[in-house]
Amino acid sequence: MRIRLLGTGTPTPSLRRMSSGYVIETGNDVIVMDHGFGAHHRLLELGIPATRVTHLFFSHLHYDHCGDYGRLLLTRWDQGADCIPELKVFGPAPIADITERLFGLDGVYNADLVARTSHGSSLDLFKARGGTLPRPRPAPEVTTLSPGDVIKGDGWTLETDQVNHFQPFLVTLGFRLTTPEGVFVYSGDSGPAESMHVLARDCDVLVHMCHYLSGTNYSPDFSHSCMGHMELAELARDARVKNLVLTHITEQFDRPGLRERVVADISRVYGGNIFFGEDLMEIPLKGPKNDRLL
Question: Which listed residue, of 27, 64, 136, 199, carries a Cα 20 to 30 Å from 190's Cα?
């Protein structure tokens, strides 16, 4: 299993950090978790074409987690020329409605899709890429997820549970991906949540939102929906996480000195390996041996 970070930022525009996105390669599958604005560019920088992506999971439907959905799906459809299986898309409601409103007959991209499936120039290019007429429209296989759902893939299993982020307006899920090589857990966006203790228990890698310096939260709603660095340290310690990856990094502590303070603070509570996430970073599944976990 190979784990790489596409986007480690937030909705705040940044040239350094794209919006949320992660890619996990396991067996013959390439699994993308979240695909916010800029994440697709990072995917290209890693040398992974859209046509290789087999599964797309959305933790929730904030735009910084799904803004590049259209780019991934349309690029994959166009370049794949009907020679690869349809993209398997998973996410909480209303993912099916969003998909229809983007790619359906009355969707945002309908005029483009009509042109590409009708005009001779596009049809000739489609045939040159190996397609056979008539050219079909994209038809992703969309599955609406609810907390507690389990998805089984080719040699892997993905478990879901609800986490704490912007309820009741959004359904937000955390994911636990189990493969023969190890266990990867992704929080989506979440504040402190008992469900994350269960999902993350004894995992090899936990990628978790670390949104602010603990003690500087704006309000109870904020601290319920977003994770401070010391609350994250306690979660990683209590769940016996082997490798902790900080992501959804804000400009508040993304500065020299404060980054080091955050890592030092967390290390006083949590004894595992700590990765201050950066776009394009690869996370070793096992990480360096750390006897403090024993």
Answer: 27
